[in-house]
Amino acid sequence: MDNYTVEIERFGSLDVSTQELDKFQWKRIDDSHFLISADHVQYLVTLESYDRSTRQMTIVLNQKRFNLKVSNKLDLLIDQMGYAEGMNKGFSDLKAPMPGLVLEIKVNEGEEVAEGQAMIVLEAMKMENIIKAPGPGVVDKILVDNSKTVQKNDTLIKMK
Would you say the pTM of this structure is higher than 0.70? Predict the structure, then answer.
């Protein structure tokens, strides 16, 4: 199981800015309920919503609603290395956030894309990374092909 980091403002009686989930004991009760043990205290958590593409979730704990952002080890590494900045600077072009190999192009020229939509699958550091649209737009020109090696900041797709 991957280690994840969840950014939260307040978690029950625990005031934290970032907590590693492996410090908690999670027990799944059903699809939307979890029992979490932290510091010898148990919390019943209701999962209200979860968006896999943005890793945003809303939970209810002690009758209070919390919006969470879940990041895995790769997300944290990309952020630490400064690659996330290259992914989020405007959306006139989709650029490679890291060097890698293009495995799959998931959009077509002329296609309208929404924020968070998968556009390209890039293999980097022996991991598949889905490069998503940082905002809405229309694909103008695809500049790469499957099996092409790209470098950090190479333009992959031009947008209108």
Answer: no
SS3 99: coil
In a shared domain, residues 69 and 87: no
Residues 6+ apart with CB under 8 A from 2: 72, 73
160 is written with which tokens? 């209108």
How, if at all, do strands 149-150 and 64-72 pair? unpaired
Distance (Å, rounded) from C-alpha 18 to C-alpha 8?
Answer: 6
Task: For the beta carbon of residue 19, count every other beta carbon within 10 angstroms.
Answer: 16
pLDDT tens column, 54-68: 777 788 877 788 777
| Cα–Cα distance measured from residue 58 to residue 47, given in angstroms and rounded to the nearest whole number | 6
Q: Which two tokens stand for residue 157?
A: 């797709």
Same-domain check for residues 56 and 38 = yes
Q: Determine the residue type at 80.
A: Q
Kindly tell me the burial class for residue 118, based on how many C-beta atoms sit within 10 Å of its own C-beta (0-12, 13-18, 19 or more): middle
Q: At residue 16, does pLDDT exceed 50? A: no
Task: Report helix, strand or coil for 93.
Answer: strand
pLDDT of residue 5: 43
Q: State the total domains in the chain.
A: 2
